[in-house]
Structure prediction request, 650 residues.
Amino acid sequence: MSHYYFLPHQRIDDMLNQLQGDGYKCVAPRHHESEINYDTITKSADLPWGFHDEQAPGHYKVNKSDHKHAFGFVLPTTSVKPMLFKAKENIWKVARNDEGKLAFEPIVEFEKIAVFGVRPCDLRGIEIQDRVFMENSYNDVRYVKRRENQFLIAMNCTKSHSNCFCVALGDAPQADKGFDLAMTEIEGDGFVVEIGSDKGRALLDALDLEAASGGQAQKALAKIAYAVDGQKKTLPPIKEVETKLMANLEHPQWDDVASRCLSCGSCTQVCPTCFCHTERDEPNVLGTETHHTREWDSCFSIDHSYTHGDTYREDPKYRYRQWLTHKFSTWRDQFRTKGCVGCGRCVTWCPVKIDVVDEINAICK
Amino acid sequence: MLYTDDAYTPYEAEIVEFIKEHHDIFTIRLKFTDPELDSKYFFRPGQFNMIYLYGIGEVAISIVNDRNHQQGRFEHTIQVVGRITKGMMKLQTGDKVGIRGPFGTSWPMNEAKGKDVIIVTGGLGNAPLVAATEEVLKNRNQYGKLRVLHGIRSSDLLIYDDMYTRWNNSPETKVYMATSNADPVDNGKWTWGKGYVTNFIPELSVDYANSIVMTVGPEPMMIGVAKAFIAAGVKPENVYVSIERSMKCAIGHCGHCQLGSQFICKDGAVYPYPACEHLLEVKGL
Prediction:
């Protein structure tokens, strides 16, 4: 029996219907105005057929062509992160009665979501965030519930954009774990499908798909190899990067990058692994109830390091250094993994075109 | 830690006593309103709670041991610094707040057994070390000499005055207090010393090679204290400090208290000095 199955383009709707019948809301990359980003879909026609993206430092553009592919673009503008760790949400509320008694109540909202088309880098982003929110001393019950109710269909890369650097990190644009199904698109034809879990097998069984032919499987692997070859960025081995960054905390490059960095925090907002957040109260005007919110924060904001009247990282140099050394060094100490997946979004969305790979190379050479 | 379902949501606690210590420093004594929580709640010296004020937010504050050693009560001494602590200054007996905790590492009370114990604090750094001091006094025969050194800017800033007198009158215990302000404003009532806490090192009459130092104060002070006592003969691994950083979650999720490889909320706040020396000495880390 083959390891690989084949889902023709014409049968995408069968898969979506099956998932919807199982109670999942289907989410996939969609073309909307000038970007491709995750949104709810109900049918195959909602996918971004024929669209592809151009990404370069500080540059993002979507174009349309006659190609017969649904995943001809490389990467949606945001990762899967906002579906699990929301940009802003109420995490608990407290009611106050006339006597001042406080009744606290956690708010835990989740739904069944099937993500159709997760790039391998974003899949690794989920794995990294799992270590923060569900494989840590304390778990976030909201994140755990959402992960338990998630169906992940990985989409291997068939090309790379110019900011991609997963290969330089020692990874590959091919899903290796953490998925229910993994697919590779063959243009004008369909998807070669691989099973990664019992949930994934049950879905394929229900669809009664045929095994992929040897030719289709070979074609899929060749497409992935093409995506690997498309990446030109290089980095020293990750262990060397991790050591050298912390050994060079006073390197002149920190001043150099700080002279260009705007401390805007765009890089942290698009990052699949950034988890910093702040919490605040939003009370009603009657004084009877407050919602306590959790909202994404950024280590580039000046308030991030504010402690008891002092700001530890007032100089932007220290904020950039905090971000970079955390991603590429101290993350390992904290979570037994690196903090970057090489998706390149921080490079694409940097308004002053700072390329994190160039900065690392300047410090570690 | 009390929580099984959600580590983010606080539990209701009641102010059983509000003690004004100074014009901007106060102590609240608390108990959980749920008797079951109250009976289960347990903390170690050096740990902290997140205290929630209705409609404003949460703040991380170290736990001061109950000065009367009552079970089921815990105290926090708080200085007005920002919005939340300013609001807390207006709390009264009977008011309700939210509590999550306890969090963080604790003072090395076991490692200190059989050693002379030197407590060195500055400013409001004395609050996180009250519990450790009381622990030594409660188990007096398990520890060597106890020396409590406290530095403040001027004599009018002294809190816990009665407690220091009681400690100073305890067996094998001596309190040394210094104001860095050369001219105290109390018209001669100040009976303690002047200068800096490290000035007392030559007169403590302890065995430095077999002493343990626990210190809390501003970072430059803790670094100075650590270096001075190590120079006097205390083994570096026997010097402990407690580090302060902003905390929103206290459970290692929010990222605010990160210091190099550490999240102060769960890997600290109490550290052996050699484990954090390199982190404290880098500006802006």
Remarks:
- Chain A touches chain B through 55 residues (CB under 8 Å).
- Residues 52 and 73 of chain A are 4 Å apart (CA to CA).
- The two ends of chain A are 49 Å apart (CA to CA).
